[in-house]
Specification:
29% helix, homotetramer, alpha+beta
Chain lengths: 365, 365, 365, 365
C-alpha cells in the first residue's frame, strides 16, 4: 500500500497536490445518522488556511470544501464521505529554481530519490496543502467524538523559540482562549511575546521552531489495543505524519529519563462519582497503550520553516553547488497553523479507536 | 482489526501472554532465499532475556525459539515463518494481589476497563514477555536488511537518570562497543556510572528512567511514503508500541523548538562518490518522511520501571484504597533490555519499507 | 473497514451515489512514469455508460472523468490519482415509490436493515452508477498491465437467456470483434439473435439474464499468493463485487463436477520457445491459486435486471403488501454494459498481483 | 501483504506446510468472554482429518490442536488466540519424483514460477494440510456465531459425478443427517450411490469431482458492505481460497442466465412475526451484497483429485517429457473432507461481518 490511507474503522484516504486541480479525502466508516454539512468543516479549514493572520503566510487560499457523497437529507448515510477542496491558485509561475535545485529541509531530494521525478510546483504532494483535506476529515471525526462520545480535543502552542508557556490544566483550556490570539497560545502575555518574536524573525528573513500541546478530554478508559495499535502508538504515528514534526511525547515525556519510579508512578485513587482516576497525570492518559480515563496530553516539537527568503547553500539535481532563496510567501513559524492539523490527526485516531472499542464491547459474549 | 499485526509487505502478527503456553509470531512476506535458522534468532533473544546480567531482573527464562514453518533446506521459501517461544515458568503462584489491585503505572486497570477482565498472571498480554517474539522477528528483518540492503541497526543507552552519554557519530557505534557492558552504553566510563546508579536504585527498592538512541546506517535515499506512511511516522509508531516509551524524537528532536531555520536546515552537498548528502544531520535521516541517505537517528524516552518492591498506594478493583508492593523480580532500569526490542522494531519498519520501495522501483514504467 | 477499498499494492477507494454530486475514486499505488490523461479513461467509460445503444437503458449520462491529482506533465508521479465523475442528472423527481416500498431484487430493504435509512434516489450507493469510477480506475490498471506487463484483458457475452455463444479460443477474441455489436458477443450471428431477444424482452416489459466471459492473456506464471490471496480468490471476490453476479467459474467451472481426474487434469508439456504450458486449459489459467501462464478464463452468471416496468408485488417499509413498477429507464439485459465493468475488476486484481509479484521477485535474496 | 491473513475484525493469519513442524493460526479479534477450549475445535478437525472413513485418504493424522494463547480460566480474553497443530508424519521419504517433476493439476509448477523454489514435501504450503488450522479457527467462529448471533452453518454434498442430490430446504438440514454417512450427503439413498461410485473410482485409480452446498441460517438482514466487501464477495473469495474449487454460485446461481426478471425476482412479503421476508430464495440470502435475512445458500464446484496412482504425462523442471504417478494415499473424491473446510471459511466470513455490523450499529448516532 502506498500509504495514503489512515485508520481502520474510521478510515481516511487522501489525494492531491499543491498545484493540481485539488485535494480529495474519502472518509470511509463514519457511522450513519450524524448531522453533517460543509458548515461543519469550514471553521477548522479557516484555522488552517494561509492568509488568516499577519503572522502566517500571506498566500490567499479560501479552502472551500465540497461534500461530494455520503450525506443525504443532512445526515451521514454510513457510506463513504468524499470531500473536495479545489486549488484556486494554479497559475503558472517560474519553478525553475525548485525544479533543478534541492531546497534544504524539504522533500525535493527525497522525492526524486524515491520516484525518479516529482511534481515540483509548490512541493507537490509534500506540500502542507495536502493537510487541508485531513483537517476537513478531522472536523468530521471531531463532531462524531463530541456528539457521540463526549470527547473534546484542543490544541495550543506552548513554546516558540525560547518563549515557553506551559499549561497546568490542559483539559481546562478553551477554544476561545486559543483563538483569542493569532499565535494560538493560551497564555495571552506569552502569546504577545511569541507574536513579536515571529514578526522579528520574518523581518530577518528567518524562521523559528516551537512546541504544540494537544489535549483530549472525556476519553473513557479502555480505548486502544494492547500491542501494536496502542493508542500512544497510533497517536504517535499520526503526529509524525505531519510535516516538520521531529518529536512527540506524552505526559512527563522526555522528563521521565531523570525520574525514579517512586517519582513517576501515578497513584490510583477514587475520583468523582467513585470513578477510578490517578492523582497525577504523568502518564499522559494512557497505560499499557490503553486510555486510562485521564486527559490525553501530548506534545509535538515542530521545526522552524525550512523555506527561507534568504540565500541558502545547496546542490542542483546534478549535484553541483548552488544557492537557493525561496521566493514564495512562507510562514515564519509553523505553529499557529499546525494546531488545527494536529487536532485533526488526534481526532482521526480517537474516532477510529472509539469505534474499535465500541465494536469490541458490543460483542462481549 | 485488534491490532496484533504490524507492517504491510513485511508483516508480523503476534500472540501470547506472560504465563500462557507460549508466544508466537508469524512473519508474512519475508522474501524467498534468505538463509535462516534458529541460530540467527538466539543472539538477540539472549540480549533481551531476563537474567542476562546483574543489573536486570533475575528471572530465568531461556527464551528458546523454534521455527515452525517457512524455512526449507536452510532457506526461507517465501511462505510465512512462524516462530514459537514456549513459556517455561508457568508454575502457579499467588496472584491475588495483582488480581484484585491495580498496580500503578501498569495496564491492569486499563485492561479491565477495555475487556471487562484480564489474564492477571504476570501482566498477561501487557507483559514485556510479549516482545520476545518481536525480537525474534526483528532478527529476521535485520538479517534481510543486512544481507540484501546493506543496512545496519545499532542501539545504545545514552542516558540513565542524570547520567548522559551523548554519541557524536551514531553510525560509528559497533555492536562490540555496546555489548562490552551490561548497560549497553557505548561510553565505558559513563556505563560504569550508570551501572552503579542502577545498583543503588535496586538497593533502594526504586527504579530509574533513561534514553535510548537507535541508529540505522546504510539506508539509501527513497524509503518511506509521502503522507501517512512516512518513514518517521512508521518508526514513531513502532517505538511507541514498546512498553514504557513516553517520547520519541529524531535528529535534533525537541531541540528544534529553539532553533531558527538558518540554524536548523541541513545543507545539501556532494559527498563521497558524488552522492548527494547533507553536511549535518539535524533532520535525523528523513526529509518529508522519506529517507535522505543520511543515518537515521532516533531517541526514545523510557520511563522508570513501574513495579517496585516498596509499598505504593493504589486502589482495589472495587475502588477501595490499599497498598501494593510487587514481589516479583523486576528490572531496576528498563534500558539495557530495551535496546534489542527497539532495534527489532526499527528493523521491522525498515524491512517493510525496503520492500515497499523495491516494489515501487521495480515497477517504474 | 467499511469496505470501499480494494487491492493491496494497486489499491482503489471509491465514494459516491447515484444522485449525489458525483463519484470519486482514489487509485493509490500506481507506479510513477505511466503516461496518463483523461483520454485513456473515456473509451471504457463510454462502453459502460447508459444510452450507448438501443439495447441498453436510454438515460443520458455523459460520464466525463476529471483527473484531480497524481499526474504531472502527462505522467503518473507515484502519488495517488483521484478521478471525479460528476453526476449530471440530479434533478428532483418523485421518489415516493422507492422511498417507501422495497423493490424486489434490489438493495432497498437490505440497506434499510443495515443503516436504518438510505439515500433512496436512484438506489444511492447501491446503484450501478458507482461502477463508473471503477471502470475509470480499471482503465488505468489496464494501461499499466498492457504497457508494463504485456497483459491483455477482453470480455464478451457468451449467453443471453437460451442463446449460447461459446468461444473456443478466448485469448484470440479482439476488442474489434466485441465492439462490432452492441451486445458485445464475439459471434455476429448469435449477437443478432441476442439483440432480438433483448428487444423482445423490453417490449414485454421484462428482462433477461446471461453469462459473460473474461479472458486475460499474457499473464506470466507466478502471479497470486498461495493461501488466502490466491489469484482465483481475489478475482472471484472482484467479480462478486459487481451488481447482479450470482455465479463465477474458471476454466471447466461447474463442469468439473462430473469429470474424472483423468479427464480433468491438464497435461504439462513444452510449448513455444521451450516454455512450460498445458495442452488444455480446463484449469482456467491458475493452479494452486497462482497463474500458470495459460490464459485466465472466467465466467460470470448475471441475473436479469430486477427493475421492471410492469407491476410486481412487494411490501412497504412498514411491511404492508403493495405493488411497484419501476418507472425509470432500465436495461432489459445487463450483459452489454457488464462487460467493461468486469474487465475493469479483472484489471484491478491483475495490476495488484502484478505489483505484488514484482515486489516479491525484486527481493529474492 | 503476502496473503496469509483473512478478515478485518475477526482476522486469521496462518502459517505452516505439509511436512514442516506444524501449522499455526492466530485468530485476532475474537471478542472476550467466549468459553473456549481445545474440545471445541476437535470435532471439526476430526471431520476434516485424513483416515476418518474408507472413502477418504488412509493417511493417519490425528490433527490435535493446542491453544497457545488468548484463553484464560476457560474464556477468551479478547487477545489473540494462537492454535498449533503439530505435524506427526514428517518421516523422510523419497520425494525425487515430486521434486523434479510437475504433477498435473497441482501447484508444483506455479510455486516454482513464483518463488524460484519450493518445499516439495507433500506439496508444502499448497497442501490441503494448511486447511487444518483454518478449520480450527472456523470452529471458534462457528461457536461465536452460534452463541452470540444464533447463526447455524451446515454443509453437505449435493453432487458426486453424475449423482445429484439437491436439497429443497437447505436450512432444514441437520448435522446428524450429514454425519450419518461418510460422504456427507443429506440424502441417504444418494449417499450410498455416491459411496459406491467413489469406491469404484478408487479401484480404477481415478478420481471424481462434485458439488458442495453450504447454508447459513439465522443471519439477520444487514450483514455485508455495499461495494467491495459485499457479503457475496467475501464469501466468494473465501470459497475460492479452498483448494480445487473452480466455481461458486449463490441461490439460483448460473441458472439465472436463462431466467427472465419476472421469473427470477423474489417477492417481498410479511413473514413470521411480521418480519419482512421473500417468498422464494433465488437470490440466495443476499441483495446488493447485504444479507436479506433469508438463508444464505452457496454451492462450490470441486474438481476431481489431481493426484492419481496411475501414470500421467507431464514434464520435468527442465521441461522434458516424462510421466508421473502419485504414490501417496489420496482421496478419490475431495468432497467429504471439503465440507468442514467450506463451513469453516463461511464461518470466518460471517463472524467478521457480524462484528462489522455490530460495530456499525453500536455507533449509529
Amino acid at each position: 500500500m502506498a500509504g495514503n490511507s489512515f485508520g481502520q474503522l474510521f478510515r481516511v484516504t487522501t489525494a492531491g497536490e499543491s498545484h493540481g486541480a485539488g485535494n480529495v479525502v474519502i472518509v470511509d466508516g463514519c457511522p450513519a445518522g450524524l448531522e453533517l454539512s460543509e458548515a461543519d468543516l469550514q471553521p477548522d479549514l479557516d484555522r488552517r488556511r494561509p492568509g488568516q493572520s499577519k503572522i502566517v503566510t500571506q498566500r490567499q487560499e479560501p479552502d472551500t470544501a465540497e461534500i461530494l457523497s455520503g450525506v443525504f437529507e443532512g445526515k451521514t448515510t454510513g457510506t463513504p464521505i468524499a470531500v473536495l477542496i479545489r486549488n484556486k491558485d494554479q497559475r503558472s509561475r517560474d519553478y525553475s529554481d525548485i525544479k533543478d535545485k534541492y531546497r534544504p529541509g524539504h522533500a525535493d531530494y527525497t522525492f526524486d530519490a524515491k520516484f525518479g521525478a516529482r511534481d515540483y510546483r509548490g512541493g507537490g504532494r509534500s506540500s502542507a496543502r495536502e493537510t487541508s483535506v485531513r483537517v476537513a476529515a478531522g472536523a468530521i471525526a471531531k463532531k462524531l467524538l463530541r456528539e457521540k462520545f463526549g470527547v473534546n480535543i484542543i490544541g495550543y502552542v506552548t513554546q516558540v523559540g525560547p518563549i515557553i508557556a506551559p499549561v497546568d490544566d490542559p483539559a481546562g483550556v478553551t477554544l476561545e482562549q486559543v483563538e483569542a490570539t493569532p499565535v494560538r497560545c493560551a497564555d495571552p502575555a506569552k502569546a504577545d511575546e511569541m507574536i513579536k518574536l515571529i514578526e522579528q524573525l520574518r523581518s530577518e528573513q528567518d524562521s523559528i521552531g516551537g512546541v504544540a500541546e494537544i489535549c483530549a478530554s472525556g476519553v473513557p478508559a479502555g480505548w486502544g489495543e494492547p500491542v501494536f495499535d496502542k493508542l500512544k502508538a497510533d497517536l504517535g504515528k499520526a503526529m509524525f505524519t505531519l510535516p516538520a514534526v521531529l518529536g512527540v511525547e506524552y505526559g512527563a515525556g522526555f522528563g521521565v529519563a531523570t525520574m525514579r519510579g517512586t517519582e513517576n508512578n501515578d497513584v490510583f485513587t477514587r475520583g468523582e462519582g467513585g470513578r477510578i482516576v490517578t492523582e497525577t497525570n504523568r502518564h499522559g492518559g494512557m497505560l499499557g497503550g490503553i486510555s486510562s480515563g485521564m486527559p490525553i496530553v501530548l506534545r509535538c516539537a515542530v521545526k522552524p520553516t525550512s523555506s527561507l527568503p534568504q540565500e541558502q547553500r545547496t546542490v542542483t539535481r546534478a549535484g553541483e553547488s548552488t544557492t537557493i532563496s525561496t521566493k514564495g510567501r512562507h510562514d515564519p513559524c509553523l505553529l499557529p497553523r499546525f494546531i488545527p492539523m494536529a487536532e485533526a490527526m488526534v481526532a482521526l485516531v480517537l474516532a477510529d479507536h472509539a469505534m474499535r472499542q465500541a465494536a469490541q464491547q458490543s460483542l462481549h459474549v
